Amino acid sequence: EAGVTQSPTHLIKTRGQQVTLRCSPISGHTSVYWYQQALGLGLQFLLWYDEGEERNRGNFPPRFSGRQFPNYSSELNVNALELEDSALYLCASSHLGWGPNYGYTFGSGTRLTVV
Amino acid sequence: KQEVTQIPAALSVPEGENLVLNCSFTDSAIYNLQWFRQDPGKGLTSLLLIQSSQREQTSGRLNASLDKSSGRSTLYIAASQPGDSATYLCAALHGSGNTGKLIFGQGTTLQVKP
After folding, report:
1. Which of A26, A50, B89, B96 has its CA 20 to 30 A from that of A95?
2. Cβ of B32 and A103 within 8 Å?
3. Within an 8 Å CB–CB cutoff, is residue B28 touching chain A?
4. Is B9 on the interface with A (CB under 8 A)?
5. pLDDT at A98
6. What are the pLDDT digits (tens) for B57-97?
7. What is the 3-state secondary structure (H, E, C) of chain B?
């Protein structure tokens, strides 16, 4: 079974530019979650999508946005990049319909560097 | 507001030692708690998931316990090996589990010396 896949693995962008990160969940998983891991700040919740809808959002500015497609894959878009956006962006997936036994499976992440 | 704390921040032990990593959370109304491993610059690997109704879970040399009343979880690693060197993160899913938001601790970085 293929795990959660993210692309690209590494990215270098200039301040002010826009970036799109992609995530494919495990087959059968309907929920996709995005987390940011910036140096020294730990893992912070960004967004949760399920069945194509945004279900919850973390404490991030509106320039962080995303969407989920009918095949449950997801994109994270960041506009007007700032130096502080440099981080490892992690995507996770789960299946809410499995009830209390579901857990989160994470991908390997996209390392974004803003210069 | 749910907060998750991990102690110690770093730990160095000789190979073969048994060790315990600690995780505490401020709100006992958790849905489940998950332990992850992260190698430098990599993603997270799920180790164990404990539901709120459970007291412990075991996988190989790993055993995780959950005590909601005291707001604590521990990860026990038996007979540690150099390959266990990594950062270990605990994460709590709050309430009814319908927020989708895992609250992570800052992690414990483990070094197992040969």
Report:
1. B89
2. yes
3. no
4. no
5. 54
6. 999 999 999 999 999 999 999 999 999 999 999 999 887 66
7. CCCEEEECCEEEEECCCCEEEEEEECCCCEEEEEEEEECCCCCEEEEEEEECCCCEEEECCEEEEEECCCCEEEEEECCCCHHHCEEEEEEEEECCCCCCCEEECCCEEEEEEC
